Target: MutS-like protein
Amino acid sequence: MQTFDYQAQELDLKLERVRKKATRLSLVRLVVFFFFGASVVLGLAEHPIWLLLTLILGVFFIRSIQNFNFQKDQEAIYLALQKIHIDRKARQDRKLSKFEKGSEFTEKAHPFANDLDLFGEHSLFQLLNHCFSTQGKQKLAEKMKSSFESDKVLSKRLAVQELAEKPIFLEAMEAVGKAFSKEENRNSSWLAWLKQKEKTGFFFSILAVLGPLGGITILVLANLGIIPIQFLGLWILLGIGVMGSIFKPLKTAADTIPLSQTLKSFQVRSQLIEKEDFKSDLLKAEKEKLNAEGEKASALLLELDQLGLWVQNRLNLLYIPFNLIFWTDFLLYSRLVKWKQKVGNALSHLPENLENWEVWVSLGAFEMELEGNGEIFISEENLLIADEINHPLIVPQKSIPNSINLDQTRQVVVLTGANMSGKTTFMRTLGINCVLANLGLSPFGKSLTLGSFQLFTSMRNSDNLGESVSSFYAELSRIKSLIDRLDSGEKVFFLLDEILKGTNTEDRISGSRALIGQILETQGFGIISTHDVELAELAKVEPKVLNFSFHSEIQDQTILFDYLLKEGPCPSFNAHKLMELMGIRFSG
Model:
């Protein structure tokens, strides 16, 4: 069996070569088919000895088709590899507009997904997703939105780092998926078909042998003039009658077995996984799931691919005459029944397992091709320590790293700062790096230490006219969700942006102070950003409250930002100058 080439070097030259081979094979196939047809005519009209040449040409014709198909498949893989490398450069440059946004996976009520640019335009999903099936993308999205499990982070990290060191395996898995996989809605019906028992019996086995022998005998005797040619017509009529008993199960198989390209994707990806040696316990377990009761899934799929192609082409004009004469449906049915008896339900889990591998490949590719190289440390304490952390969606050359240390003794940070100085981006940087760590991915920065907590954010609270909900009420509802979780004793790391911005200054400050007081009595800790510098006064009476800020500097008609986090409250704000620059004229 020929094996595919997954090396990405000199792709243009390789594509040229494989296309030339395919063109030559196409011409050879046409010539062989012409001589095949001629030998059939000579065999029937002149002498049966020509049928021997027909058999040889038939084998050669089939081999030429297989070789042609292999060259076209190799071409598809090369094209997929080419696209993978183009996409990689786009991700490294953070040019993400052409990638799927994953907006359908957004959940407004989710604890953090809606605020951290996990999905949508210029999102983590666009940077991370290498899946090609709908189900694979759904699984990846669910992983991104999953609750934090600090005890599993390091085992996931070992698996991801191992995959990142296998670039050819990652590219091969993705290329095969992109080259061969077609979206089908056959999975559920295929699983039902695998469980369905077929009619069996000695009668069908006899007909599988009798059909070809009878057809050959009648052809030879008729050609020699020993029996009239009308006997062939009677034999065909008899065949139509008896083959009707297996027409329905074969049609069901044709309708439910995945298409050849999909089976090829299953088979080749299974083979790639089987050949790879993994050290991580998680990857070993995923690989073990592919085993089909002691037999390799790839071998079973290859056999099914051959049978499926036969089943799905039974009504082909070239197949029908052979079937009517040699009753080949019985041979096909016999082999299909034996395959199902051997496999049973062993392959029923395969599509789902391969979808899991799509997620693993996405994680490994992200780790391999992007700049996340920080360390992850896990603590049983309720804390978060970020050392020179960056935002993964910002081009590395433009990203400014910042650090912060939060725990139960440094429980609430009041973050003040000028407009556009970087408050919200910094909070999102912390949140999205926590999500990366929960996936087993390296943080973008020197290191990230995670305690045992859940993440909660409140940043994008918009009104909903359909539900008659104002943005202020939406934020209050969000804060109530946080309070309920904290009151239940849950450990929560929260990020609250522009707290209570929908009300007047006096109510906003008093409400914010009351909320911070409640938080200090729980196991919650986090950051609250605000323009109300009055809240910074809390740090003078509450030792667990800290002040941090981002600053700006006004020079002539320009506002300059350094985007560096500083201790202490913000000394000045820039809203007045920004309004002037936008054309608002202040009197006096």
Residues 1-92 form one domain. Residues 65 and 372 are 46 Å apart (CA to CA). The chain has 20 helices and twelve strands.
